[in-house]
Amino acid sequence: MVNLSSSQTTQIKAGPLVSDIRAWWMQESNDWDALVSGLPGLVGGPDLWDRMPAVDSKTAARSSHLFEKHFGLPLNTKLIRPGGYSSIDDMITHLVPLMEKSAKG
Amino acid sequence: MRAKFASHFTVDILRQLIPKAKIVGLSFATRLPHPSKIAPKERNNVFEGIKAHAVSQCISALLSAAGLPEMRIGNGPEGERLWPSGFVGSVTHKGTVVLSTIAPTALYSAIGIDLERVEGNEGDLDPNVIAPEGIPDYSHTPTATLLVLSAKEAVFKAQFPTTRRMLTFTEVQLDWRRTATPKFHAVGHVFGGLQLNVSAVIAAPWIITTAVRADQNV
Fold first, then answer.
1. In chain A, which residues have their Cβ closer than 8 Å to the Cβ of B155?
2. DSSP one-letter string for A7-57
3. Are A58 and B116 an interchain contact pair (Cβ–Cβ within 8 Å)?
4. What is the ipTM of this complex?
């Protein structure tokens, strides 16, 4: 039996966390794309754009349950970059390593 | 011919919340084609490009409104905007709406604004993480949690030039003193003793919040 160090265990959990975050975000994006495709004619343009998913502080805070699921800790909101992120991969690249470090203690 | 930026009703709400500050806001929705006319993979790029231009135009108009010359507002090492000496300012954007404010430090020594939108997914926000001190008295808990998130974002922005601290939600405590729906008021206590006056309005689906230094008349 191989005993894993806590850092190895945390690294193993980062992979599934990243997968979960991407899957969660893909669902959000697909939901919006479906909304865009589903409306008849060209009504609702401005409101649709207002509802486009954005990787901002609110989105990062909403992902906290995923960090808690995989790392046992809710997202440390101090780590969220002011002004948000350019993409979900940008958020993952920034937050996951920082939270991984926190989880290792 | 390119469509002009449009106004937005949240601008008037913001003016009511911080009447002594200069406020400029706009909606860039009129500059965007209907999203169905853009390939899905290009929609974000198109949106972000027009948003960047809108933010730039908003700031330019804000400086002019404050009697300041045209200048580039750069960013500090933590991403904070570097306003001209003697002024405090704040910018927020959500969806197609951009709001901005600036004031001389003689009027407001600290200022922060935030704009959020109720989208029906606020149930994912954990009030124990965002508002361990409690949420304001409001009929819909997820919306109240989003209101707290927005208020604390405004506080984060207002306090940063003074403290140079990035804060967590637990390092800001809001003592809510509701006046009359849909307006909310709180005293924000920041780690280290700073106090800020926080105001918020729910104008569905939008939430507009402000935070100003407590020793200033609002």
1. none
2. HHHHHHHHHHHHHHHHHHHHHHHHHHHHHHHHSSTTTTHHHHHHTS---SH
3. yes
4. 0.88
